[in-house]
Design goal:
- This protein has 202 residues and is mostly helical.
- The chain contains 10 helices and no strands.
- The longest helix has 28 residues, at 48-75.
- The protein is elongated, with a radius of gyration of 20 Å.
Length: 202
């Protein structure tokens, strides 16, 4: 019974947050929709932020964990395989992310469009920082393997990587059907792949 009540609060909270955003959502409205008191909500969630996080945090963390594992597995490859498999690894990772986002669409809609401002920015910044570090690690590996790689400014890498991940979440911001999103992401990948090869001189 308690778990049913908790799930009912989550469902009503999701609807309220999707409709009004984090700032505009009201625990009183959520309580009324769920048929409980506001005090009952506090029995499950200490505040509005905790309720929101319960709807978002697990799918968001799963995506981040997978992203980190992809980077770590790629970094463990020998240099020749990194050079040969970089494009495919990136493609497979993006494809997994898109599938994951659409499996948990409401959670990512909340994160991208309805969260308290800093939450989404902080989430994207984590991904940007990881990808930026991985990019320079890849450059170092290529240099040690005897490949000539052009010098690239760290701020430029940061800007480009930020554009990539901001672009990824545009599929949610614009409510793209999954089939269209896959086409869009493929185009984004082609653009960035060609650009990176050009910038790095590879």
């Amino acid at each position: 019974m308690a778990e049913d009540t908790r799930q009912n609060i989550l469902d009503c909270g999701r609807d309220e947050f999707l409709q009004k955003g984090f700032e505009g959502a009201s625990l009183r409205t959520i309580a009324k929709a769920a048929g409980v008191t506001t005090g009952a909500i506090y029995g499950y969630f200490p505040d509005k932020k905790a309720l929101f996080d319960a709807l978002v945090s697990q799918p968001a963390q799963e995506l981040l964990d997978k992203f980190i594992s992809i980077q770590e597995e790629f970094a463990a490859l020998p240099p020749e395989r990194q050079a040969a498999e970089m494009v495919q690894t990136s493609h497979d990772g993006m494809a997994w992310m898109v599938e994951h986002i659409y499996r948990h669409y409401d959670a990512f809609k909340l994160l991208v469009c309805c969260s308290a401002g800093p939450d989404y920015a902080a989430y994207v910044n984590k991904m940007v920082e990881i990808e930026t570090r991985s990019t320079f690690r890849f450059i170092q590996v290529m240099c040690r393997a005897g490949k000539h790689v052009r010098d690239v400014d760290e701020q430029l890498v940061h800007i480009l990587v930020n554009g990539l991940f901001s672009g990824l979440f545009e599929i949610v911001a614009h409510d793209m059907p999954k089939e269209k999103a896959l086409v869009y992401i493929n185009g984004l990948e082609e653009f960035y792949t060609a650009g990176w090869f050009q910038i790095l001189g590879l």
